[in-house]
Amino acid sequence: MIFTNGSMTDASTLGSMTTAAVLDCGKLGGALSLWKTLVAKQRGFGYPEVFIGDIDKSKWLSFTVTTTLPLLRQLFEHLTNITLGREGLITFKESDWLMTLHPHYYPAYPGQPEEAIVWWGYGLNPDREGDFVKKRMADCTGAELLREAFSHLHFDDNLDVLTRHSHAIPCMMLYITSQFMPRVKGDRPEVVHEGSINPAFVGQFSEAPDDVVFTVEYSVRTAQMAVKALLGLGMTVPPVYKGQRNPLVLLAAGIAELEGAGRRAQAPVRRGCEHATRAGTRGRKEL
Questions:
Q1: Cα dihedral sign for 155, 160, 161, 166?
Q2: Is 17 a residue whose pLDDT tops 70?
């Protein structure tokens, strides 16, 4: 049996252009509920409450947008001087929501109409008021999220027409960064426990030594480890790349940081949960 013990998108809720995504703190998705049920019956399979016990520290608000107006492509490409979808993440670091946007390269999905532009955004501070929309991000409708995003992009002259041709869906994700919560060894179960033939634990909340969560690669690696152990296949799990020990990588990172610090010093500054349930530390020393 291969078991995904928890998901970073468990218990997510959706809003619309006219409604905000509801924060439902009493809700657990199927993967987390099953993990909690398992550890209540059998110790040694980790502690899910470590990751889900403080929603205010693990939640984000994200939103997905479809815009059916070629003008948005023109504005984005004029702003970035890069083909739409090739510019990577765009973060407004002075934003009170700490908002990030990412247009997807065409096509984002099979059959996508040529005129449709699909893009995505999120905010790390959903309980703060916006710089342009004076509401908590968590309380904003899709239309209000668009207004904040277009205002940060300085698309003010076209704000109304862009909004009319856009459809934004807010998504409240309670546990999106829960895998980063303070933990100690044993809080995540081993992929396959020593001497065990069943089950295997895969995904962001199982233990893959030296790897980094919040990546597709992490989940894939745990699945490879599970299949190799349970099925006895002669496959090789690729080693984890350890760039932090490569002097060339460290040098490049240092240069990039110094260059970034110089640009930040010269650039003008432009400023664009009471619902948590807290788990005890059980006397553990945090990492």
A1: positive
A2: yes
- In sequence order, what are the residues at sequence separation of 6 or more whose Cβ sits closer than 8 angstroms to the Cβ of residue 148? 97, 99, 130, 131, 132, 133, 137, 140
Domains in the chain and their CATH numbers?
2-56+176-231 (3.50.50.60), 60-173 (3.30.9.80)
Six-digit token pair at 42?
Answer: 């059998």
The residues pairing with 65 across neighbouring beta strands, listed in sequence order, are 119, 168
Q: What does the alpha-carbon distance between residue 77 and residue 74 come to, in Å, rounded to a whole number? A: 5
Q: Which of 242, 237, 235 is nearest to 191 (CA)?
A: 237
What is the tens place of the pLDDT at every residue in 175-196?
999 999 999 999 999 999 888 8
pTM (2 d.p.):
0.81
Where would I find the H helices in the chain?
A: 30-41, 49-52, 55-58, 70-80, 142-152, 159-164, 216-231, 247-266
What secondary structure does DSSP assign to 71-84, as a single string? Answer: HHHHHHHHHHSS-T
